[in-house]
Amino acid sequence: MQDKVLRGSPKSQSKSLPSTYWDGLANIWDKNIQNPKSFLRVAYFEADLWISKVISGKRRVLEVGCGTGGSTAVHCSQVQHLVATDLSPDMVRRAHANLSGNRKSRNVRFTVADVTQLPFSSESYDAVYGRGVALSYAPDASVALRQIRRVLKPGGVLAIDVMNLRPTSMSTYRWKVFQMMGRTPVYQEVKDDGRVRTYNVFDIRPGDPWIRYCRAGKKVRCRPKNLRRHTTRSYLAKARYFTPQEITAIVQAAGFREVTVHPLGHLYYAQVSEKPWMRKFWREHAEDLSRFITELEPHVRTETAIHLLVTARKPRNGA
């Protein structure tokens, strides 16, 4: 069954990282997630455990922010029909390639779509999920949630994660670097003040001498002089952290009920512990430990989680 795509959807008035930014990460995304030192490895695995509980057995399911298809591969066999979407065409292409040899993925259709402008008919999905903090990167999480609610059938369920505003993230950090985003050379400034992560990205002109700095991944202490002379365009975007209380209120305001927040990624602290025996134990039992900690959720503090996963339901009466 093909999805009906709506034409003439209104364009978002807010700014976010463009699809080309994520295109530049597509060829290294899998490596980043699988990095043994990455907190994403822990948080994403636990997110998928919760998502499985929410969507298993559903008929028509939509995934937002599918990236390179890591979560798609986990859940495609749990539902009858899955549409996996991402803002980035290159991410979608890589996801399709990653799952092309998987017999269980024959029920999957990939398409490029923005979570704030979903091009699907209203009330067409039984469940919507996202693993990759798409709401944190959306220019307006409320707009994205209202779009998700629109495409959900009455009684449909939601499972989606966000970056958690935990006390340990309150220290400010910033860095400035020349780097390659895929094939695009850029100068990038990133600042994180514990509540908002700000990206200021400048594309380097083709053939410019500064491209050699990008290929070398050169970090600098301050913004280079005459930067505009060496660049073709720039964009400024932000990603937001949420407290459990904030994201609960936003999801409820978008019209969802039965909202629950689940903590993700606590085992990252064992992964980077100063104690060798803890790091060794995590490496040997990582997935079993994640399953164990999700079962112990009532005893785990949401305030110290790396990410948060929100589950909710669209009311059956349309209220």
Please, could you describe this protein's structure?
With about 325 residues, this protein is of the alpha/beta class. The chain has 2 domains: about 20-165 and about 245-315, Rossmann fold; about 170-240, no CATH class. Helix content is about 30%, strand content about 30%. It is built from 11 helices and 12 strands. The chain has helices spanning about 20-25, 25-35, 40-55, 70-75, 90-100, 135, 140-150, 210-215, 245-255, 270, 275-295; strands at about 60-65, 80-85, 110, 125-130, 150-165, 175-180, 185-190, 195-205, 220, 230-240, 255-265, 305-315. Strands 1, 2, 3, 4, 5, 6, 7, 8, 9, 10, 11 and 12 form a 12-stranded mixed β-sheet that branches. Strand 6 and strand 7 (about 185-190) form a beta hairpin. The protein is globular and about 60 Å long.
Features:
Rossmann fold, 319 residues, 12-stranded mixed β-sheet, 2 domains
Short characterization:
The protein has 319 residues and is of the alpha/beta class.
Low-confidence runs (pLDDT<50, min 5 residues)? 1-14
Q: CATH homologous superfamily of the largest domain?
A: Vaccinia Virus protein VP39
So what's the overall shape?
globular
Order of helices and strands: HHHEHEHEEHHEEEEHEEHEHHE
Could you name the CATH topology of the largest domain?
A: Rossmann fold
Note the beta-strand portion.
Answer: 25-35%
CATH architecture of the largest domain: 3-Layer(aba) Sandwich
